[in-house]
Write the structure tokens for this entry.
Amino acid sequence: MAMGVAFMLGKKEIEQILAEIMDTIPELEGLIAASQAGKVFAGQTLREKDHNAIIASIVTLLKETKTVNKAVDQGPVQSLYLETDKGYTVAVTASKTLVVAIAGKDAAPSLGLIIRSLRSAVEKIGKSE
């Protein structure tokens, strides 16, 4: 049985990918890589956060978007963007993988860079066989 890159990359390699993004974008407060089924591969956040709960919530939101997708007929969701009064949560999906970024309000000018960086990370982590 062939496995995707996400299962071939070790936790340290995934953590390195996330660390490079954190170093590049100082406004980020955290990054979490996981499967779209909800299994956390690796994550780092500046403050103590429950990575499993965050990913479970994002997976639920992604599942719920299928109703919207069907109604608007625009294809599958590639990213999910949430803005609150304190900051942003951005999730990017590809294949069977997702990467979630948590950022404060000061990240507004960097949102394009964040999304591009997440796309690159999710491709590196989750390429299919």
